[in-house]
Design a protein that fits this description.
Elements (H helix, E strand, L loop, with lengths): L25 H15 L4 H15 L10 H25 L7
Helix pairs in contact: 1-2, 1-3, 2-3
């Protein structure tokens, strides 16, 4: 029956090769998220914190189920802390004068 064009030579995805390899893989995203989270403690936490959360979430495969790589989980946790501290710092920088003084 392979003579009717149903062979597997033209369809490499049928043998377990799924997805393209053009984007960054999950391990790289986890490390990038971890670096963003650590750098966010020192500078630009309001930008690097959410970036770390996004990179960590994508590195975990956009799911909490299953096994999670440690750098991705740490990136999400530290990114959330970075973002929270940056928001508190920005709220404290505005003061309580409401712009009257």
């Amino acid at each position: 029956m392979a003579g009717f064009g149903n062979g597997t030579r033209r369809y490499p995805r049928s043998r377990g090769r799924m997805g393209s390899r053009t984007g960054p893989d999950r391990a790289t995203l986890g490390i990038v998220g971890l670096v963003c989270a650590i750098a966010g403690f020192f500078a630009l936490g309001i930008i690097l914190g959410p970036a770390a959360i996004v990179c960590g979430w994508l590195a975990m495969g956009r799911s909490w189920a299953g096994s999670r790589p440690v750098p991705a989980l740490v990136a999400v946790a530290l990114g959330a802390i970075d973002t929270l501290l940056a928001i508190i710092w920005l709220a404290g920088a505005t003061g309580t004068g409401n712009g009257l003084l």
